[in-house]
Structure formats: structure tokens, C-alpha cells
Amino acid sequence: MISSRRNSLSPSARDAQLAGVSALSALISSALFVLVVAFVLKESWPALTGVGPARFFLDPAWHPTEGLFGLTPMLAASLAASIGATLLAAPLGIGCALFWRYYAPPAIARLYRWAVILLSGMPSVVMGLWGLTVVVPLIALVEPPGASLLAAILILTLMIAPTVALTTEAALAALPDAYWRGALALGLSREGVIAHVVLPATRASVASGVLLAAARALGETMAVVMVSGNVVQTPSSLFDSVRTLTANVALEMAYATGNHRASLFVSGLMLAALALAFAATARSLVGARGHA
Question: For residues 95 and 87, what is the distance between their CA atoms, to the nearest angstrom?
Fold first, then answer.
């Protein structure tokens, strides 16, 4: 007689242990996030109470030593760089995922996928150095000085396109094979299946991956510092030199004091709020897919 104790009780015990470890990990991660937000809020509180939230949007310039705390130009530059990079990276990343999933031979698909994974892990300082020595001089040939919003968008595109590609590929892999077989049985071509079945069925997951990539672009610092020009102004052209919120914090935190230092933490609060908005939107899209 074969005992059922190993087959029935052991998996349940392991499941319970895994659930406990997962719950503890989630609790620690949540606690760390709350502590980070609380710390940033504490450090920015002197500026929020002494300067006032409205002045960060209404002051005409950013000169903290002269009592001017306008963050609007840098907020506009951050959004422009992030949105511009997302608009370029979304079709590029989705196209890459479709290529290695449905068109490339298996050997080429594996090689291509590993290349994308390698690019996704490339240090931002390396991407920034490449952008400074290659992309910026090329743009300068068209419109000096070259260090500009356009350079930041192009570098961020290369940095977030792998994220879009990998999340899209995961969504495509999770799609049941019955969708593909059923569409082919109805006489659709491969392009027709992709356009009318695969992409509509995975649009929520793909869109959430795009939004998460946009959040990464919004928070990128080092590469943007190296290629954007770091001039505090509201961009009116792709060739304008700009400074983002992340670059401003990195450049000025070392010597900032008083309200100047606290206002840099306000920049951090803005970035955290925007990143949370992106994440919440992505989560709602995934939830909508689950209820569909």
C-alpha cells in the first residue's frame, strides 16, 4: 500500500511555507516603500510649508538662492522626454517582440532575445557615454549644440524599448494557442491573426508594459544628465537644451541647504507621484483585462 502522506501533505506544507515567505517579502517591500515616501515627505516639508506648493508651479524661474522655486520647466522637460521616448519605444519594442515570436527562426529568435535582455541590463552611464560621444555630435551637425531634448529622447528610447519588448513577449507567450489555431482555421493570414486577434487580446498587458517603461524613463538620471544640456527652460523645440527633475536633484543636492535642499525633495515627491500614477494606470489595465 502506498502512503498518500507524501503526495498530499508535503505539497500543502511547501505551499504554506512559500505563501508565508511571499507574504513576508511583500510586507517588507511595502514597508520600505512607505518609509521612503515618508522620508521624502519629511525632508520636503519645510519647503511645502515655508515656500508653499503653488510657488513650485507659479514662480517664473528656478533660482533658489534668490527665492525663486519654479519647477515647471523641469517638470515639462521630464514629461516631454518620457512621453517622447515612450512614443518611439512602444512600436519599436512591440515590433521586436512580434518578430522573434512569430517571424524569426528559433535560433535567431533566441539570439535576438538574449541581445534585447543584454541591452535592458546595460548601465545607464554607459548609454549616456555613448549618447554623449555619438548621438550628441550627430545632432550638433543639424542644430548645435547637440545636447538637447532630442538626444535625451533617443537615449531613453534605447533604454526602455527592451522593457516594452520583454513585457510584450511575455504577454504573447501567455496567450492560449487556441486563439492562434482558431484564427488560422477561419482562414486569416499570419498578419491578420496578429492584427485582429493577438494584439487586441493582449492590449491590456502590452499597454501596462508600455506605461511601466514610461515610468522608468521618467526616473532615469545619469544618461539624461550627460546628453540633455542641463539648461533650465521650458522646451519649445526638440533641439532645446533642457534639465529634467531627476537631473536637477543629481546636480544640486550636493551643495543645497535650507529651502533649496527641501525643494529638491519636492522634486522627488513629484516624480514619485507621477510614477505612482503610471503604475496605477498599468494596474487598472491589467485588472480590466482580468474582468474582460
Answer: 13
